[in-house]
Design brief:
85 residues; HPr; alpha+beta; 4-stranded antiparallel beta sheet; Histidine-containing Protein, Chain: A; cytoplasm
């Protein structure tokens, strides 16, 4: 399973709007995507799962999926400041 690590660029971390954008993007890939942080892994399509990870600006997260394009898309999103999107 392809796996990559990203440093979260959003100034507020993965809370509220950024978490929503990540979960929608993960759901839109059509494949299961896992997001891991702080030793926990959640379904990246679940906004509640993402929020439960309590990811802050500058934290590292690991994205895994069977589709490398899905991993790349989520990594690109996480490495942008989604606060203003």
């Amino acid at each position: 399973m392809p796996t990559r690590t990203a440093v979260v660029a959003s100034r507020i971390g993965l809370h509220a709007r950024p978490a929503s954008l990540v979960s929608l993007a993960a759901a839109g890939t059509g494949v299961p995507v896992l997001l891991e942080a702080h030793g926990r892994s959640v379904n990246a399509a679940s906004i509640l799962g993402i929020l439960s990870l309590d990811v802050s600006h500058g934290d590292e997260v690991v994205v895994s999926a069977d589709d490398p394009a899905a991993v790349d898309a989520l990594i690109a999103l996480l490495e942008r400041d989604l606060t203003e999107d």
